[in-house]
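Checked the freezer inventory, then went back to the computational side. Two predictions to log before the end of the day. The first one is the construct we discussed on Monday; recording sequence and tokens without edits.
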Amino acid sequence: MLIHASRAAKRVLQGLLVVVAALMLAGWVSASTSTHVPLAKDGVHDPASPAIKILQEPSEALSKLPPDAVGNRVRWVKALEQGLITPRANLLPDTTIRVLDLDVLMPRTGELPMVRFPHRQHTEWLDCANCHEKLFKSKTGSTTSMNMFQILQGEYCGRCHGAVAFPLTECNRCHSVVRK
């Protein structure tokens, strides 16, 4: 039975390594690209639409923001802190926005540095209900099953990181607290 368990663990580890390698390659490719894909060639916008001429090109818009070497090549939190962008805080006028200046330390990271989760940077963008109670429990320590495999599969932090926030290949941005 132990042999089967270690073979299964080895397969899971190999699968995880393939996913991490793919993410790293994607991060390297995007970091090595000097310009953003024009809207007419991005596969999302209709190049025949008259609206394509009035939309701002990503390279024009994003080049004015603090650069990053990975992902969509923008340091979004720095852009927010510098007042270069002002994201809409809410869609409905009656929504109360609460910025929470609280860091949560996540110590269960194996031998890696611990994760410091900064609520302030997240709540300047998002309402608490975006993550709580669906992705994370509000009570510290209650979200017990979270692991990197799930995050890499798009769960928990992976809902945004790798999609609209910096990619998961930037391990040290989250795993930033060295163990004593």
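The second is the one RB wanted added to the comparison set:
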Amino acid sequence: MLVGAGKAKIELPESLFPIEGFGGVHDDLYVRTLLLQAAGRGTAPQGEAQLRKCPSRAEVPLEGRIPFLIVCFDATSLRPYAIKTFRAQAAEAAGIPQENVWLCVSHTFSAPHLRSEEAIAREGGEVARKNEVLFASMTTAMQSAIAQAKASLEEAQPVIGNAYCAVNVNRDMLTAQGWWLGADDLGESDKTVPFVKFLRPDGQPKAVLYSCDVQSSVMDHSKGADGYSQVTGDLVGAASRFIEEQYGDDFVALFLLGAAGDQAPLFKAKHNIPNRDGSIEETDIGDEGFVLVNALGKKLGAQVVQAMERVRQPFQPGEAALRQTTIHCPGQKIMPNLKDIHPTKTYDFQPEGERTVTVSYLTLGHVALVGLGPELSSTTAIDIKKDSPYPLTIVATMVNGGDKYMPEHTAYDRITYEAMNSKFARGSAELVSRHIIETLKSIRNEPLAVSR
């Protein structure tokens, strides 16, 4: 297989600030890319015939391989119009079909959002100007990172493994008023960090793809002495920087957001503590929180590096397979204003129509990458990994868009924040989990194609 990787900084000029409560940049945001080309089978429902129509404009010959591109932005989320535009631009730049592009986010909570089209039309002026600047900066960084990935394409061998790192904790905490956001050390939380590293022909590491069930939100809504927040890649940004520093300037550590819907960093700058009398005390340590970012980020990064060094035996990727499936889930009404959500012991979950979920799959020999929009709970991904027929399964969320939370069934009994802030009704997560497992088994059992 051929592998290329790239990384480029998202330039945020001083003229952009203040924006959304941010007064400046603490550490830079990046776009990271991973471009793969492997012999294999096509993407449903278009099938292999669609892949043969791959544009001839690609500077690197496809040589009968299936091309696949992952683009990860250091961002909280991406608007639908941004997904549509970025995905088309990424496909054009890489010379591959749009169906073969995954747009992802590191899910740092400390990055300015691209505003909605409604907000831009409503507010205009400075809001529209700043959004245009931010959009252009993200576009430029993405194009640069893809160009680097194409230029660095070379034969590479994959090595798989799992690190273990306790930087995450279940954030659903029982209080006197009901379940709320905090930290529950006894709550379900997957501490494994699956990864795929890619070795150059000389045996040296070229890039790593890694995942963890954690929201990168150590500095979420934390304010400094000046009353502003600072832009930061947060926990994941610090982890990826640490890994890249260990292997050199041209090494890329690309993060895939795991099932972090109910997972928070072990420590946060702004956090809730339950008192003896049942009240909830909110504390914000401000800029001191960056000590936590650095500590947790380096802890995660160091565990990935150590695991990468322990596991050195590559495997033959065999035949790759790309698939895409659609699942119809029961829907429910969602509160229009997040400020109305609070800890409670009673809540009327009201059904509302049907929701459609698109799931994308890439399998490479012993590895299965599963990508979807909804933010799953960690326990859902644990179930998928346990029953997956692949030795290493990475469940990535907020892929090609975000669909808010899809919590497991106990969250509805507990009336958690995720359950109240979900457009998916009870049972959706279990339905999606079963569908993904069945699809993975189907792909695994397909007969290999005749060698070209």
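For RB: Residues 43-62 have pLDDT under 50 and may be disordered. The radius of gyration is 21 Å. Let me know if you want it refolded.
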